[in-house]
Amino acid sequence: MRKALWQHIKENAKEKGIFIDFINGYSDHCHCLVSLGVDQNIQKIMQLIKGESSFWMNKQEQFRDILGSNKFEWQDEYFAVSVSESVIEKIRLYIKNQEEHHKKKTFNEEYDEFMDKYKFERFIG
Predict the structure, then answer these.
(1) Please, are residues 31 and 23 in contact by the beta-carbon 8 Å criterion?
(2) 3-state secondary structure the chain
(3) Which CATH number is 97's domain given?
(4) Residues 10 and 35: beta-carbon distance below 8 Å
């Protein structure tokens, strides 16, 4: 189900002029390496990706057994950081290896470590 969703997100983004360089995730999150165009901003991109992909997922008959009576939806929040060109290959590898990576550490553990390491403030909307 995840692989189908990632493929759909990438294809739909391309149709909307959004360049997703790499996409993958785990059971509770998705990572997208996105290159923003000059007239794009992260808020609008995320709104388009999350809104349309939720709508698409809920229309897919092949996922009815998995979702049951639940509707697929993303959480309201998202987390975005910019990365230097010099680390793009490292970021792709990190995104590619999500399943292996999260056998050792949960997303929440990783998120907390990242926030502490780089001294980001936590905003709760």
Answers:
(1) yes
(2) CHHHHHHHHHHHHHHCCCEEEEEEEECCEEEEEEECCCCCCHHHHHHHHHHHHHHHHHHCHHHHHHHCCCCCCCCCCCCCCCCCHHHHHHHHHHHHCHHHHCCCCCHHHHHHHHHHHCCCCCCCC
(3) 3.30.70
(4) no
Cα separation, 67 vs 87, whole angstroms: 37
Is the separation of the CB atoms in 48 and 16 below 8 Å? yes
As a whole number, the mean pLDDT across the chain is 93
Q: Residue 62: what residue type?
A: Q
Q: Note whether 53 and 8 are within 8 A (CB).
A: yes
Give a yes or no: residue 37 inside a domain. Answer: yes
The mean pLDDT of 21-41, rounded to a whole number, is: 95
- The domain tally of the chain equals 1
Choice among 3-7, 30-34, 52-56, 69-73 with the minimum mean pLDDT: 69-73
Q: What is the pTM of this model?
A: 0.88
- The encoded tokens of residue 33 equal 């390496």
